[in-house]
Amino acid sequence: MPILKPLVLTALLAMTACGAGSAPTPSSPSGSGTPPTQSGGGTPPSTSGGGTPSTPPGPGTPSTPPGSGPCPPAGPIAAPAAGPLDAALFGVWTDVTDKLELAFLPDGRAFMLDTRPGTKVGAQPGTWQVRQGKLDFHWLISGPDRESYGVSGNGMTVAGWIEMNRTGSAGDAPGEYARQTAAAAADAQTWQARYPVGPIVASNAKNDPQPGRVCAGATVYSGEGLDVEDMTILTAYYTDPYQVVHEYKTGQAVEFNFLPNGRFWHNSWLAKGVDANFQPVHELITVWGRYRVQPGPALEGDTVTLEYDGGTTETVKVLGGRRYLYQPGSDILYLNQHPKPTPGG
Questions:
Q1: Which parts of the sequence are annotated with region: Disordered (predicted)?
Q2: Cβ burial 297-333 (10 Å sphere, 16+ → b, else e)
Q3: Fewer Cβ within 10 Å of end Cβ, the chain: N or C?
Protein backbone atom coordinates (compact mmCIF):
# COMPACT_ATOMS: atom_id res chain seq x y z
CA MET A 1 0.00 0.00 0.00
CA PRO A 2 1.20 3.56 -0.39
CA ILE A 3 3.33 4.36 2.63
CA LEU A 4 1.12 7.13 4.02
CA LYS A 5 -2.35 6.34 2.65
CA PRO A 6 -5.01 6.99 5.33
CA LEU A 7 -6.03 3.97 7.39
CA VAL A 8 -9.20 2.55 5.87
CA LEU A 9 -11.58 0.33 7.80
CA THR A 10 -13.37 -2.55 6.17
CA ALA A 11 -16.61 -2.67 8.14
CA LEU A 12 -19.59 -0.36 7.68
CA LEU A 13 -20.52 1.91 10.58
CA ALA A 14 -23.79 1.05 12.27
CA MET A 15 -25.64 3.94 10.67
CA THR A 16 -28.71 4.16 8.45
CA ALA A 17 -28.40 5.72 5.03
CA CYS A 18 -30.47 8.87 4.85
CA GLY A 19 -33.58 8.30 2.81
CA ALA A 20 -32.22 5.21 1.06
CA GLY A 21 -32.31 2.27 3.45
CA SER A 22 -29.28 0.54 4.94
CA ALA A 23 -26.04 -0.26 3.20
CA PRO A 24 -25.31 -3.95 2.54
CA THR A 25 -23.44 -5.42 5.48
CA PRO A 26 -20.06 -7.09 5.02
CA SER A 27 -21.48 -10.30 6.47
CA SER A 28 -23.81 -10.84 3.51
CA PRO A 29 -22.68 -13.74 1.27
CA SER A 30 -20.58 -12.46 -1.58
CA GLY A 31 -22.57 -12.29 -4.77
CA SER A 32 -25.89 -12.48 -2.95
CA GLY A 33 -25.98 -9.24 -0.97
CA THR A 34 -29.21 -7.32 -1.51
CA PRO A 35 -28.72 -3.66 -2.32
CA PRO A 36 -31.60 -1.30 -1.60
CA THR A 37 -33.99 -0.40 -4.37
CA GLN A 38 -32.38 2.34 -6.40
CA SER A 39 -32.47 3.75 -9.89
CA GLY A 40 -30.62 1.45 -12.26
CA GLY A 41 -28.90 3.91 -14.55
CA GLY A 42 -26.32 6.54 -13.96
CA THR A 43 -22.71 7.39 -14.14
CA PRO A 44 -20.43 5.69 -11.60
CA PRO A 45 -19.79 7.91 -8.61
CA SER A 46 -16.62 9.94 -8.96
CA THR A 47 -14.19 10.32 -6.11
CA SER A 48 -11.69 12.80 -4.87
CA GLY A 49 -8.97 12.94 -2.26
CA GLY A 50 -7.69 9.39 -2.69
CA GLY A 51 -10.80 7.45 -1.78
CA THR A 52 -13.44 9.89 -0.55
CA PRO A 53 -16.48 9.52 -2.83
CA SER A 54 -18.28 12.62 -3.99
CA THR A 55 -21.95 12.89 -4.86
CA PRO A 56 -22.55 11.28 -8.26
CA PRO A 57 -24.81 12.71 -10.93
CA GLY A 58 -28.30 11.38 -11.28
CA PRO A 59 -29.48 8.36 -13.30
CA GLY A 60 -28.73 8.24 -16.98
CA THR A 61 -30.28 6.52 -19.96
CA PRO A 62 -28.73 3.24 -21.16
CA SER A 63 -26.87 3.77 -24.41
CA THR A 64 -27.70 0.26 -25.64
CA PRO A 65 -30.99 -1.61 -25.62
CA PRO A 66 -31.62 -3.99 -22.70
CA GLY A 67 -30.53 -7.57 -23.20
CA SER A 68 -27.36 -9.47 -23.96
CA GLY A 69 -24.84 -8.06 -26.35
CA PRO A 70 -21.14 -7.56 -26.93
CA CYS A 71 -19.12 -5.51 -24.46
CA PRO A 72 -16.22 -3.28 -25.43
CA PRO A 73 -12.75 -4.75 -24.92
CA ALA A 74 -10.84 -3.84 -21.80
CA GLY A 75 -8.94 -0.61 -22.14
CA PRO A 76 -5.28 -0.37 -21.19
CA ILE A 77 -4.16 0.84 -17.78
CA ALA A 78 -1.21 3.13 -18.34
CA ALA A 79 2.17 2.19 -16.86
CA PRO A 80 4.38 4.93 -15.49
CA ALA A 81 7.18 6.21 -17.70
CA ALA A 82 10.75 5.55 -16.64
CA GLY A 83 12.39 8.45 -14.86
CA PRO A 84 15.58 9.50 -13.08
CA LEU A 85 16.86 7.45 -10.14
CA ASP A 86 18.94 8.32 -7.08
CA ALA A 87 21.92 5.95 -6.75
CA ALA A 88 22.09 6.71 -3.03
CA LEU A 89 18.92 4.63 -2.62
CA PHE A 90 20.06 1.47 -4.38
CA GLY A 91 19.82 -1.45 -1.97
CA VAL A 92 17.50 -2.85 0.72
CA TRP A 93 16.17 -0.66 3.54
CA THR A 94 14.36 -1.63 6.75
CA ASP A 95 12.61 0.66 9.21
CA VAL A 96 13.59 0.76 12.87
CA THR A 97 10.64 -1.47 13.87
CA ASP A 98 11.51 -4.17 11.28
CA LYS A 99 7.95 -3.92 9.95
CA LEU A 100 8.64 -2.10 6.68
CA GLU A 101 11.16 -3.10 4.02
CA LEU A 102 11.86 -1.30 0.75
CA ALA A 103 14.13 -2.62 -1.99
CA PHE A 104 15.34 -0.16 -4.65
CA LEU A 105 16.84 -1.69 -7.79
CA PRO A 106 19.11 0.21 -10.22
CA ASP A 107 16.73 -0.64 -13.09
CA GLY A 108 13.78 1.19 -11.48
CA ARG A 109 12.03 -1.76 -9.91
CA ALA A 110 11.06 -1.74 -6.25
CA PHE A 111 9.50 -4.03 -3.67
CA MET A 112 7.64 -3.19 -0.45
CA LEU A 113 7.09 -5.61 2.44
CA ASP A 114 4.82 -3.99 5.03
CA THR A 115 3.58 -5.70 8.19
CA ARG A 116 2.61 -2.56 10.12
CA PRO A 117 -0.83 -2.50 11.82
CA GLY A 118 -3.57 -1.24 9.51
CA THR A 119 -1.68 -2.12 6.35
CA LYS A 120 -3.90 -3.02 3.41
CA VAL A 121 -1.30 -4.72 1.21
CA GLY A 122 1.45 -6.65 2.93
CA ALA A 123 3.74 -7.31 -0.03
CA GLN A 124 3.90 -5.96 -3.58
CA PRO A 125 6.36 -5.13 -6.33
CA GLY A 126 6.38 -1.85 -8.18
CA THR A 127 8.55 0.79 -9.81
CA TRP A 128 10.25 3.91 -8.49
CA GLN A 129 11.83 7.11 -9.68
CA VAL A 130 12.72 10.49 -8.25
CA ARG A 131 10.59 13.36 -9.51
CA GLN A 132 10.92 16.94 -8.29
CA GLY A 133 12.96 15.77 -5.32
CA LYS A 134 10.44 13.19 -4.11
CA LEU A 135 10.13 9.42 -4.32
CA ASP A 136 7.56 8.57 -6.97
CA PHE A 137 6.37 4.98 -6.55
CA HIS A 138 3.89 3.05 -8.67
CA TRP A 139 2.94 -0.10 -6.78
CA LEU A 140 1.40 -3.07 -8.58
CA ILE A 141 -1.62 -3.35 -6.28
CA SER A 142 -2.16 -0.04 -4.51
CA GLY A 143 -1.11 2.26 -7.34
CA PRO A 144 0.80 5.56 -7.22
CA ASP A 145 2.37 7.01 -4.10
CA ARG A 146 4.62 10.05 -3.73
CA GLU A 147 6.72 10.68 -0.63
CA SER A 148 9.46 13.02 0.55
CA TYR A 149 12.77 11.47 1.51
CA GLY A 150 16.25 12.27 2.72
CA VAL A 151 19.38 10.09 2.69
CA SER A 152 22.49 10.39 4.83
CA GLY A 153 24.92 7.52 4.32
CA ASN A 154 23.14 4.33 5.37
CA GLY A 155 20.22 6.15 6.98
CA MET A 156 17.05 7.43 5.32
CA THR A 157 13.93 9.29 6.41
CA VAL A 158 10.78 8.73 4.35
CA ALA A 159 7.67 10.92 4.52
CA GLY A 160 9.27 13.04 7.18
CA TRP A 161 8.98 10.48 9.99
CA ILE A 162 9.77 6.90 8.90
CA GLU A 163 13.38 6.16 9.86
CA MET A 164 15.06 3.44 7.82
CA ASN A 165 18.49 1.82 7.70
CA ARG A 166 20.25 0.22 4.74
CA THR A 167 20.30 -3.53 5.41
CA GLY A 168 21.39 -4.67 1.95
CA SER A 169 23.63 -3.26 -0.76
CA ALA A 170 22.75 -2.45 -4.37
CA GLY A 171 24.01 -5.91 -5.25
CA ASP A 172 21.63 -7.51 -2.73
CA ALA A 173 18.54 -5.74 -4.03
CA PRO A 174 17.84 -7.88 -7.15
CA GLY A 175 17.99 -11.10 -5.14
CA GLU A 176 15.72 -9.72 -2.43
CA TYR A 177 13.30 -8.46 -5.09
CA ALA A 178 13.20 -11.89 -6.77
CA ARG A 179 12.72 -13.73 -3.47
CA GLN A 180 9.94 -11.49 -2.20
CA THR A 181 8.13 -11.33 -5.55
CA ALA A 182 8.16 -15.13 -5.85
CA ALA A 183 6.73 -15.45 -2.33
CA ALA A 184 4.01 -12.88 -3.08
CA ALA A 185 3.11 -14.65 -6.34
CA ALA A 186 2.83 -18.03 -4.61
CA ASP A 187 0.61 -16.54 -1.92
CA ALA A 188 -1.59 -14.89 -4.58
CA GLN A 189 -2.00 -18.18 -6.45
CA THR A 190 -3.33 -19.82 -3.29
CA TRP A 191 -5.85 -17.01 -2.84
CA GLN A 192 -6.88 -16.80 -6.50
CA ALA A 193 -7.98 -20.45 -6.51
CA ARG A 194 -10.63 -19.58 -3.94
CA TYR A 195 -12.38 -17.13 -6.28
CA PRO A 196 -12.98 -18.94 -9.59
CA VAL A 197 -14.07 -17.47 -12.90
CA GLY A 198 -16.37 -19.08 -15.42
CA PRO A 199 -19.23 -18.52 -17.87
CA ILE A 200 -22.33 -16.54 -16.99
CA VAL A 201 -24.93 -18.40 -14.93
CA ALA A 202 -28.35 -16.91 -15.70
CA SER A 203 -30.24 -15.58 -12.69
CA ASN A 204 -32.10 -12.48 -11.61
CA ALA A 205 -30.80 -10.41 -8.71
CA LYS A 206 -33.22 -8.54 -6.49
CA ASN A 207 -33.75 -4.90 -7.53
CA ASP A 208 -31.73 -5.28 -10.75
CA PRO A 209 -33.40 -2.91 -13.23
CA GLN A 210 -32.05 -4.72 -16.32
CA PRO A 211 -31.20 -8.31 -15.34
CA GLY A 212 -30.88 -9.51 -18.94
CA ARG A 213 -28.33 -6.87 -19.95
CA VAL A 214 -25.07 -8.85 -19.83
CA CYS A 215 -21.96 -9.27 -21.97
CA ALA A 216 -22.71 -12.22 -24.23
CA GLY A 217 -20.14 -15.01 -23.83
CA ALA A 218 -18.31 -13.20 -21.03
CA THR A 219 -16.11 -14.75 -18.39
CA VAL A 220 -17.30 -13.60 -14.95
CA TYR A 221 -16.68 -14.29 -11.27
CA SER A 222 -18.47 -17.56 -10.58
CA GLY A 223 -19.36 -19.40 -7.40
CA GLU A 224 -20.40 -16.71 -4.92
CA GLY A 225 -19.10 -13.90 -7.10
CA LEU A 226 -16.81 -11.20 -5.71
CA ASP A 227 -17.59 -8.41 -3.24
CA VAL A 228 -15.07 -5.62 -2.56
CA GLU A 229 -15.38 -2.48 -0.47
CA ASP A 230 -13.51 0.58 0.76
CA MET A 231 -14.55 2.66 3.74
CA THR A 232 -12.98 5.81 5.14
CA ILE A 233 -13.60 7.16 8.64
CA LEU A 234 -13.88 10.95 8.54
CA THR A 235 -13.63 13.70 11.13
CA ALA A 236 -16.34 16.33 10.61
CA TYR A 237 -17.76 19.32 12.49
CA TYR A 238 -21.12 20.96 13.13
CA THR A 239 -22.17 24.18 14.89
CA ASP A 240 -25.00 24.00 17.42
CA PRO A 241 -27.61 26.76 17.98
CA TYR A 242 -25.29 28.37 20.57
CA GLN A 243 -22.56 28.69 17.90
CA VAL A 244 -20.41 26.05 19.58
CA VAL A 245 -18.44 23.91 17.14
CA HIS A 246 -18.49 20.14 17.79
CA GLU A 247 -16.30 17.43 16.27
CA TYR A 248 -17.77 14.05 15.33
CA LYS A 249 -16.81 10.90 13.46
CA THR A 250 -18.61 9.74 10.35
CA GLY A 251 -17.78 7.58 7.37
CA GLN A 252 -18.12 7.14 3.63
CA ALA A 253 -18.00 3.85 1.75
CA VAL A 254 -17.96 2.49 -1.77
CA GLU A 255 -18.58 -1.13 -2.77
CA PHE A 256 -18.61 -3.32 -5.88
CA ASN A 257 -20.50 -6.62 -5.94
CA PHE A 258 -19.86 -8.81 -9.00
CA LEU A 259 -22.55 -11.43 -9.54
CA PRO A 260 -22.15 -14.78 -11.36
CA ASN A 261 -24.92 -13.73 -13.77
CA GLY A 262 -22.68 -11.14 -15.42
CA ARG A 263 -24.16 -8.16 -13.61
CA PHE A 264 -22.65 -5.93 -10.92
CA TRP A 265 -23.80 -3.17 -8.62
CA HIS A 266 -21.83 -0.29 -7.16
CA ASN A 267 -22.85 1.42 -3.93
CA SER A 268 -21.76 4.82 -2.70
CA TRP A 269 -22.61 5.55 0.93
CA LEU A 270 -22.09 9.29 1.27
CA ALA A 271 -21.85 11.42 4.41
CA LYS A 272 -24.44 14.21 4.37
CA GLY A 273 -23.79 16.10 7.59
CA VAL A 274 -26.07 15.80 10.62
CA ASP A 275 -29.82 15.82 11.19
CA ALA A 276 -31.89 18.01 13.53
CA ASN A 277 -30.69 15.89 16.47
CA PHE A 278 -27.06 16.28 15.38
CA GLN A 279 -26.76 12.63 14.37
CA PRO A 280 -24.74 11.73 11.24
CA VAL A 281 -26.85 11.08 8.15
CA HIS A 282 -25.91 9.38 4.89
CA GLU A 283 -27.21 8.91 1.39
CA LEU A 284 -26.93 5.55 -0.37
CA ILE A 285 -26.74 5.56 -4.17
CA THR A 286 -26.64 2.36 -6.21
CA VAL A 287 -25.86 1.99 -9.90
CA TRP A 288 -25.91 -1.24 -11.91
CA GLY A 289 -24.07 -2.53 -14.94
CA ARG A 290 -22.60 -5.51 -16.75
CA TYR A 291 -19.01 -6.72 -16.71
CA ARG A 292 -16.52 -9.14 -18.17
CA VAL A 293 -13.26 -10.52 -16.79
CA GLN A 294 -10.00 -11.03 -18.64
CA PRO A 295 -8.22 -13.40 -16.22
CA GLY A 296 -4.54 -12.80 -15.58
CA PRO A 297 -1.72 -14.12 -13.40
CA ALA A 298 -2.62 -14.31 -9.74
CA LEU A 299 -0.39 -11.49 -8.50
CA GLU A 300 -0.65 -9.20 -11.54
CA GLY A 301 -4.39 -9.71 -11.59
CA ASP A 302 -7.45 -9.69 -13.83
CA THR A 303 -8.48 -6.87 -16.12
CA VAL A 304 -12.20 -6.18 -15.65
CA THR A 305 -14.32 -4.14 -18.05
CA LEU A 306 -17.28 -2.40 -16.42
CA GLU A 307 -20.12 -1.02 -18.48
CA TYR A 308 -22.62 0.88 -16.36
CA ASP A 309 -26.26 0.90 -17.42
CA GLY A 310 -25.93 4.65 -17.91
CA GLY A 311 -23.41 4.02 -20.72
CA THR A 312 -20.11 4.82 -18.99
CA THR A 313 -17.32 2.25 -19.39
CA GLU A 314 -14.19 1.89 -17.29
CA THR A 315 -11.42 -0.64 -16.68
CA VAL A 316 -10.33 -1.80 -13.23
CA LYS A 317 -7.82 -4.34 -11.95
CA VAL A 318 -8.55 -7.21 -9.55
CA LEU A 319 -5.18 -8.11 -8.05
CA GLY A 320 -3.24 -10.11 -5.51
CA GLY A 321 -5.22 -13.34 -5.64
CA ARG A 322 -8.49 -11.46 -6.16
CA ARG A 323 -8.20 -9.88 -2.72
CA TYR A 324 -8.06 -6.31 -4.05
CA LEU A 325 -9.70 -4.15 -6.68
CA TYR A 326 -7.88 -1.02 -7.82
CA GLN A 327 -9.90 1.67 -9.58
CA PRO A 328 -7.39 3.92 -11.41
CA GLY A 329 -9.86 6.69 -12.14
CA SER A 330 -10.49 7.33 -8.45
CA ASP A 331 -7.28 5.92 -6.91
CA ILE A 332 -9.39 3.74 -4.60
CA LEU A 333 -8.20 0.32 -3.42
CA TYR A 334 -11.12 -1.94 -2.47
CA LEU A 335 -10.71 -4.97 -0.21
CA ASN A 336 -12.37 -8.37 -0.63
CA GLN A 337 -15.19 -8.47 1.92
CA HIS A 338 -15.60 -12.25 2.08
CA PRO A 339 -12.10 -13.69 2.27
CA LYS A 340 -11.91 -17.45 2.33
CA PRO A 341 -9.83 -19.09 5.08
CA THR A 342 -6.30 -17.77 4.99
CA PRO A 343 -3.61 -20.01 3.51
CA GLY A 344 -2.65 -22.54 6.13
CA GLY A 345 -5.54 -21.49 8.38
A1: 19-79
A2: ebbebbbbbbbbbbebebbbbbbbbbbbbbbeebbbb
A3: C
pLDDT at 14: 30
- Strands 313-319 and 324-327, how do they pair? antiparallel
How buried is residue 185: exposed, middle or buried, by Cβ count under 10 Å (0-12/13-18/19+)? middle
Measured CA to CA, the distance from residue 228 to residue 141 in angstroms comes to 14
Cβ atoms within 10 Å, residue 148:
13
User: Which of these ranges, 31-45, 196-210, 321-335, has the smallest mean pLDDT?
Assistant: 31-45
- pLDDT band for position 66 (cuts 50, 70, 90): very low
Task: Please determine, for residue 181, whether its predicted confidence score (pLDDT) is greater than 70.
Answer: yes
87-191 to CATH, choices 3.20.10.10, 3.90.1010.10, 2.40.128.290, 3.20.20.150: 2.40.128.290
Identify the H or E element spanning 189.
helix 173-192
Decide: 124 and 188 in contact? Cβ < 8 Å: no
Where exactly are the structural domains of the chain? 47-77+196-336, 87-191
pTM: 0.76
Single-letter code of the amino acid located at 245:
V
Question: Which residues are registered as beta bridge partners of 324?
Answer: 319, 335
Between these two residues, 81 and 199, which has the higher pLDDT value?
A: 199
Q: At residue 78, does pLDDT exceed 70? A: no
